[in-house]
Amino acid sequence: MKRVKVAQVGCGYWGQNLIRNFSEVDEAQVVVACDAYAPSLARIQKRYPGVQGESSFDAVLNNPNVDAVVLATPVSTHFDFARRALLAGKHVLVEKPMTTTGDEALELIDIADRKNLKLMVDHTFLYTSAVRRMKKLVDSGELGDLLYFDSVRINLGLVQSDTNVIWDLAPHDLSIMDYLCSPEPVAVSAIAAAHLNCPHANMAYVTVKFNSNSNLIAHFHVNWLSPVKVRRTLVGGSKRMLVYDDMENSEKIKVYDKGITITLDSEQRTNMLTGYRNGDILVPNLDTGEALRLMAREFVTSILEDRTPLTDGQAGFRVVRLLDAAQRSLDEGREIELPHSHAMAAAAV
């Protein structure tokens, strides 16, 4: 069986998780681990003695035994490292967010397309059984027309020194929204605050508006200063509503057969008649497979099968352009309108 030979670049906390999962994917073989921090590299080599250690990224790029590069490095390095890897003829998987600007993301997509290479971003939550079941519920029409997507991702820390809370936490929920919601986002607004001498915003609220053909609205609350950890998403539909609570051990998704109906009084049209529906609560049974394992396998099998991966460069771009717009909204104090994503992609070619 042909196997994709992988180089892991960045061997910190998340890099260790990636190496473990790629090592357990039959279609992959981790051949190189790269990190400029010697203790991190030594820890990996002790656990995986068959993996070659490198402190230089150039050594990885010049290694003909490497088919694909997996980047778990600081966000500020993503564009440069991914660009160099693609130009060196390597397939690339990069951690979220893919880049720091939409233009950078489009440049990476263009290089990958021209060189017939796979570019993928690690939007891990899209590989969880909970989000995959949510996708089935939305696509089947069981929820009806989507009305709102409301997300809360808050906890105490980990405060970052090189980025704000939106860029750190919101990519998870923006990627889920992008996966579930088909209408095109048309505008983004954000407000935020930096407390306790933090160099960057440590709590924020982001709102995404969609095209005029949809009544859908999305809202995101992210916070590094919460006394409790909350990972909860509500998706409201015209037929049913669901709650996704990632802090739950077993019942992560609950589907509520609840809603309201509003009609106008035929005699007095100014009077509204409101009906409330309180039906059953469905708790779907979910598998317990590790999402990161599925993500790793998706990357290597997309290479072997020469197909577009689920979370490809375009998915990474769509999330980055929302983050980019949220940052502009903070900087300029106004709502930011989004150009059509297809128009942006065409302009970059």
Report the end-to-end length measured between terminal Cα atoms.
36 Å
**CATH architecture annotation of the largest domain:** 2-Layer Sandwich
What name is given to the CATH topology of the largest domain?
A: Dihydrodipicolinate Reductase, domain 2
For the largest beta sheet, what order do the strands appear in spatially?
Answer: 14-13-12-11-7-10-9-8-15
Report the count of strand segments.
15
CATH homologous superfamily designation of the largest domain: Dihydrodipicolinate Reductase, domain 2
Approximately how much beta-strand content do the residues carry?
25-35%
> What is the radius of gyration computed over CA atoms, rounded to a whole number of angstroms?
22 Å
Structural class: alpha/beta
Largest sheet: 9 strands, mixed
Helical content band: 25-40%
- Please, what is the average pLDDT? 93
Low-confidence stretches: none
Q: What's the helix count?
A: 10
Q: What is the element string, with H for helices and E for strands?
A: EHEHEHEHEHEHEHEEEEEEEHHEH
CATH classification, class level of the largest domain: Alpha Beta
List the helices and strands and how they pair.
Layout: E1 4-9, H1 13-23, E2 28-34, H2 38-47, E3 52-54, H3 57-61, E4 68-71, H4 78-87, E5 91-95, H5 102-114, E6 119-122, H6 129-140, E7 146-156, H7 165-180, E8 185-193, E9 203-210, E10 217-223, E11 225-237, E12 241-245, E13 253-264, E14 272-282, H8 291-304, H9 313-332, E15 336-337, H10 341-348
Parallel strand pairs: 1-2, 1-4, 2-3, 4-5, 5-6, 7-10
Antiparallel strand pairs: 7-11, 8-9, 8-15, 9-10, 11-12, 12-13, 13-14
